[in-house]
């Protein structure tokens, strides 16, 4: 059965004109239920991230100061959220959601988190709406728990480079980081992933998909991962306010289909976190994210 991590706590009230589209975390599950892609049974409420699991990836001092709201102003500013206990609690629940997803991925082949994809969170700092790196945390939990998972691929197709993830795993031979992103986009100082594919502004479906269909099979064949994380950010859409690329809704869905399909064909368990999506048209964000869930149902169940 398709299992999806979600809790009402994912929806945190921000001031009205805040540019983070918090409302999508309410609208995606609503859409999936309304159209019948999912029933209530598909959703599960994750617990809260434990300190033990957090510290497999993050610095103890940073983590504790984050949880106690003791970050300096200089540390808080790049994160871009008004900090509060509830917001950190939300972040911890989302990270735990990605960990719990992994069990379902091992059982059913795929699972998704309605949120997550906080790939700009580094070992000891956060930025760009990311405080704790959910997929990095879950990858390190998987590696530590002795279930035979020892080669993990993180496919990051959010339009922004997964700089935190790349940095966290830069010296790891157990985790391969693959990032497709806009060359002229944030972060302007890029980290080195194991493989970075950069795109010029306005890159279209055909060019993007050609690159994906070339590089992803090559990486899977060479690295032979036995678990895959996919960050399916939809800020690659042409009308995204922050994206700069030129993908259509159809191209974005084709992208997801290719990733899900290759994991299914190779029998590699797959966890998916949502990542960014900042289109001026909220309907497009919801449609593009919903496509990822529809494909998971269609291809795996
Ligand atoms: Zn992004």
CATH architecture: 3-Layer(aba) Sandwich
Q: How much helicity do the residues have? A: 40-55%
Which value, in Å, is the CA radius of gyration?
A: 17 Å
Oligomer: single chain
Write a compact overview of the structure shown:
The protein is α/β, with parallel strands linked by helices and 301 residues long.
Please characterize this protein's 3D structure.
With about 300 residues, the chain is an alpha/beta fold. It has a single domain (about 5-10, about 20-300), classed as Arginase, Chain A (3-Layer(aba) Sandwich). The chain has ten helices and eight strands. The radius of gyration is 17 Å and the shape is globular. The mean pLDDT is about 95. The structure holds zinc ion. Zinc ion (ZN) binds near residues 158, 159 and 275.
List the helices and strands and how they pair.
Layout: E1 3-5, H1 24-35, E2 43-44, H2 51-54, H3 60-67, H4 73-76, H5 85-108, E3 110-113, H6 134-144, E4 152-156, H7 163-168, E5 175-182, E6 195-199, H8 205-223, E7 227-231, H9 249-265, E8 270-273, H10 282-300
Parallel strand pairs: 1-2, 1-3, 3-8, 4-5, 4-7, 5-6, 7-8
Helix pairs in contact: 1-10, 5-6, 8-9, 9-10
The protein binds zinc ion.
Zinc ion binds at residues 158-160, 233, 235, 275-276.
Give me some keywords for this one:
301 residues; 8-stranded parallel beta sheet; Arginase, Chain A; globular; alpha/beta; single chain; binds zinc ion
